[in-house]
Structures are given as structure tokens and as C-alpha cells.
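Attaching the record inline, Q. Sequence:
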Amino acid sequence: MKTINRQLGDYLEYCEKVRCMSEATMRTKKNVLERFAKVTRLSDLSELTNEVFNAWVAHEVSRGVSYRSVNAYDTVILAMVRYFIGMGRAIPLKTALIGKLKEGEVRRKFYTADEVKQAVSCADFKTGLMITLMFETGLRIAELVNLRVSDFDGRRIKFIGKGRKPREVYIRESTLLWVHKYINIYNIEGYLWGDTLNGEPPTVETVRKRLRRPFFEAGFTDFYPHALRHSFATDLQYNGASVEEIKEMIGHESLATTERYLHGFDGRLMELFDKYR
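Structure, as predicted:
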């Protein structure tokens, strides 16, 4: 076994056993670190220089990974480096010289119910279900990826969300029938999307690419998964839900956060003006 593989294993064990990180966080860290080792071809972290790190960043950008995602990957890698430096291991990387890529303004986008239907009509059976679940519940993509069959109790879905917070969401009866049909067709028992050889769920990046395809075919070229969470909140607002009600349904801690997700009046200002003036 290569030295770097043992080093990655030691760090991941520390994250799991000492830091008690969630299963989803551990899976993300493992995927990022294994990819980093594969791309850089390091044999030992003692070979990690700023030149090697910068080449990794350039490689990820060249394959179309967003600046935001690259920054998130780098955070995972630097956390590992700082852990080993703190343990007394000599690593030549000068972390103070590592800067973040400028991400630009965060996009705030939503889709109407009709636009979501357009995308679903362009999707295959499984992807259409993924899109529908996200739009009906406001699930984050990581929460979607880690759903298990056992999380479903009739129309209710109970799961552990962001910050290890227990949450529950609900789906329509028609969507529940879709879920049951999908489970029976694919003979699913554990993770809802666990059709890989080892039964583990796909990565977030794999699902992100899968979701993007039908939106692109429906004419939406700038799709990103979190827009479906904005769409869930905005659709609730459009149908008369109060901000307080939306806050509870989407699982936010504060009203201020929820308000940033609402686009219910976007494109309707003339309609409102004519109504009230």
C-alpha cells in the first residue's frame, strides 16, 4: 500500500472516530481526498508543494468544476494538511500562500412548477423522480443523495439534515406511488439511489450532472441543484404560504435565511402595480 493511502486512511479515521463527522461528510471527504491523490500522483504528503497544489487547482478548473466547488475541495485538503502538520509531520506546502478562487456573485434562481414539469418531461424515470422529490420537499442535493428506503413512512420522509438536525418533509400521494414503483423496478433495499455495485449511493457530483441534463434539454442551460430548493420555497409563497410557514417547511433556523429564498414577486411587479395602483 502506498504511504499516501495510509495517510488518507489515518486522517479519515480521525475525522470519523475523534471528530464524529457524519456519514455524508465522511463520504465527501473520502471522495475529494482520493481524487486529489489520483490527480496529483503523490506517493507521500511530504511531496506536497505549492506547485503541486496549484497544478491540482488548475486541473479541476480545466475540467469545468465551478470555482465554488474547487474552493470547497481545497478546504477539505487543507484541513487534512493542517491536521498532519499539527501532528508534527513535515509537509512543505505553505498554506498561507493558498488563496480562494474568486467565485463571483452567488446566483439566485428559481423555476416555476411548469418549468420543473418541462424538465421532468425530458428526464428518464429515475432522474424525473429525483427532480420531483427535490421540488416537492426542498431537499438539499446531499440530503437527496443520502435518502434511504427506511426514511419513507407513507407520504412522510424523516431524515437527518444539515447540521445533523432531524427533519421531516412530505410528498404527494402520486409521488409516493412513483417512489414505490421505482423501488420495485430496481429492487432497492438500502440507499434509495444505491444501484452501484457496493450498494452505496452515488456521489453528489454524479447526481448533479444527472439532474443538469434534462434541464439543459428543456432549454435551461444554467441549472444548478440548489435552485430547486429556491423553487420549492418560491412555489409555496406563490400559493399563499407565509414566510413563517415556509421557514418551518424548508427547515431554516431564521426568517432572514428563508427570505433570501423567496422570488415570488420576480417578474410580477407590473401585475402588482396594476392591482394596487
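The longest strand covers residues 156-160. Residues 237 and 264 are 6 Å apart (CA to CA).

More tomorrow.
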